[in-house]
């Protein structure tokens, strides 16, 4: 029996919405039989800024023991799902800083031919969820990765209307994540794991043939 496909869920979250989506993506990948690493990226904000927002401080304290992503985690993975809140319609600096550390792996071609996807949260209804995911996916194209967005490939995607990746509008913490959005995230995890397993099986078949 072949070993399970390996999925890294790598995200940044300040007050917890993106973290909750990351957990759902990881659940979905595990449901599909994947071995999953749930990983946060390092916090860059000063302690004073974090302390000024009670929700930020609370979440920051709650994830202290969660592993911090390293380039080695991406080398390990068959598939990577990135998560970020939006910052002016773009990727949060904490996740972008992590992406910028991957030049060594990129130069060796070790980020190529993996499956990638993403998810996002915003404070406002139209705060750049699509533009943030599209900006995030620029890195995937440079990696030579295989982008596997959820699209409209499952009924839940018609309910949430987020073909680029699961997304949530949290209204500064006033809007809880809906079960439909959580299921969209779980579906993305399952889809990414399934496609990654199919690709690996196909590569193995070519080698054996």
From TrEMBL:
It comes from the Bacteria. Pfam families: FMN_red. One of its GO terms (molecular function) is FMN binding. InterPro entries: Flavodoxin/NO_synth (IPR008254), Flavodoxin_CS (IPR001226), Flavoprotein-like_sf (IPR029039), Flavoprotein_WrbA-like (IPR010089), FMN_Rdtase-like_dom (IPR005025). GO terms for cellular component: membrane. Residues 7-192 form the Flavodoxin-like domain. Belongs to the WrbA family. This is NAD(P)H dehydrogenase (Quinone). The lineage of its organism: Bacteria, Bacillati, Actinomycetota, Actinomycetes, Pseudonocardiales.
């Amino acid at each position: 029996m072949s070993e399970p496909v390996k999925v890294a869920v790598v995200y940044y979250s300040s007050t917890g919405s993106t973290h909750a989506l990351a957990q759902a993506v990881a659940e979905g990948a595990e449901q599909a039989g994947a071995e999953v690493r749930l990983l946060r990226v390092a916090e860059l904000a000063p302690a004073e800024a974090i302390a000024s927002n009670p929700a930020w401080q609370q979440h920051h304290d709650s994830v202290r023991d969660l592993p911090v992503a390293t380039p080695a985690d991406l080398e390990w993975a068959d598939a990577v799902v990135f998560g970020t809140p939006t910052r002016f319609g773009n990727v949060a600096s904490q996740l972008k800083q992590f992406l910028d550390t991957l030049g060594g792996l990129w130069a060796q071609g070790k980020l190529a031919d993996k499956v990638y996807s993403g998810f996002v949260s915003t404070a406002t209804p139209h705060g750049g969820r699509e533009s943030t995911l599209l900006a995030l996916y620029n890195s995937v194209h440079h990696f030579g990765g295989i982008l596997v967005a959820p699209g409209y490939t499952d009924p839940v995607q018609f309910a949430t209307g987020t073909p680029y990746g699961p997304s949530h509008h949290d209204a500064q913490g006033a809007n809880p994540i809906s079960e439909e959005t959580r299921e969209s995230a779980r579906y993305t995890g399952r889809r990414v794991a399934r496609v990654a397993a199919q690709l690996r099986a196909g590569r193995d078949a070519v080698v054996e043939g």
